[in-house]
Amino acid sequence: MYNLVSFSGIFILMAFAWALSSDRRVVNWRLIVWGCILQMIFALFIFVVPAGANVFMFINDTLVKIIDVAGAGTRFIFGRLALPPGTTDEWGGESLGFIFAFQALPTIIFFASLMAVLYYIGIMPWLISIFSKIFTKLMKVSGAESLCASSNIFVGIESATTIRPYLKRMTRSELCTILAAGMSTIASSVLAIYILILQKQFPTIAGHLVSASFLSAPAAIIMSKLLMPETGEPETMGMDVKPFYEKESSVIEASISGANAGLKLVAGVVALLIAFLGIVALADYIFSGAGSRLNTLTGLNIDWSLKGLMGYVFYPFTLIIGVPPSDAVEISKIIGERTIVTETKSYMDLAALLAKGTLHNPRSAFLATYALWGFAHVASLAIFVGGIAALVPERTSDLSAVGPRALLAATLACLMTASVAGTFFGGGSILLGQ
Is 96:80 a contact under the CB 8 Å cutoff? Predict the structure, then answer.
């Protein structure tokens, strides 16, 4: 029954996006139909076809092994601080528990360096070009926005550089799609963080996060084009656009450049978490204090924290994607708080719920994993608008204007991804690590 709820949720979410469209008279039906078909084919292959499940498990095990190997450098630098919970080093020293700063963040540097090497040897451009061609031909979108959306499956804000020559002349609809695609996916360089956070409670989390990346790209295009349909004439419509990037002189230089970029990303993540979690804590203190007095005066029982308030907003959407009512309140709070405090904190709260055994149905954590997979939050909006505006300063006003609509598109795309995954959920599947 809940699988049917998730399936119907796909269309309810699209109808909601269309209702808020900047021009409801313009609907690209080919884009919507093919976008849904692409998601269904991929989900069917992963969750139903036995060979797909084997591919899924191979990817999951490979990523887990890579992360374990990547920890060698971290353990050399930080010693016992970098040991995962329940492990010991070669000298018998025991782990001091999970420490986010010393176990999760350093993996960003490794993955950023690895991705730079894969770009240098041509693997990443080849993969990105394949998906770009599929989106351009089947979904009837411009080659530039298709290429950027494909890049976001694997990388983050830097995906905009792959279409830098075309940014100046892009339509507003294209700019909205670029922003939405960036915020509805997550860079591979931070993939390891969420695997480390949830792996103990959700052994196959790595495979699910990878599949979420592939599902989110077409979902972002659909939601973006429903909210801001194309009314102009894109320069690269129907064209096969090649990725634009500056190639290093050697694989060593690529590795070093990637590591340096990863280090900057770590600093950005740290600054973002410190600032936003502090601001949210202050806001919670103010809202909770005023709200508790209001509850006392009126006899109401309302959760006035930001997490609680956002939970009320996202509660109906949580039911729409197929989360059982018994867990909907907790899951809606986690999905809602992502909009304000980033997906990192939300994944940590999900891990805490799993560790406590608070959730009644494994379906709830499964759907939350997919719904949270994306940079769909206020801080990310500022990062993407600012980052792309730095490449094309003359389009700053356009980027700022479409930014809020792109954030809504990204949020709905993440929920749509969860609905697609929920359509094929199987309680006894090996993909759940049970």
Answer: yes
Confidence of residue 336 (pLDDT cuts 50, 70, 90): very high
* One-letter amino acid for residue 177 of the chain: T
> How is residue 396 written in tokens?
């700053």
CA pair distance 107, 67, nearest whole angstrom: 7
Q: What is the DSSP letter of 425?
A: -
Distance CA 271, CA 275 (A): 6
pLDDT of residue 428: 54
Task: Report the alpha-carbon distance of residue 183 to residue 406 in Å, rounded.
Answer: 8
Q: Tell me the pTM.
A: 0.85
Q: Quick count: other Cβ atoms within 10 Å of Cβ 262?
A: 24
Domain boundaries along the sequence of the chain? 2-432
Give long-range contacts, CB 8 A cutoff, 24+ apart: 356-363.
Answer: 358/330, 359/327, 359/330, 359/331, 360/324, 360/326, 360/327, 361/324, 361/326, 361/327, 362/427, 362/432, 362/434, 363/2, 363/322, 363/323, 363/324, 363/422, 363/425, 363/427
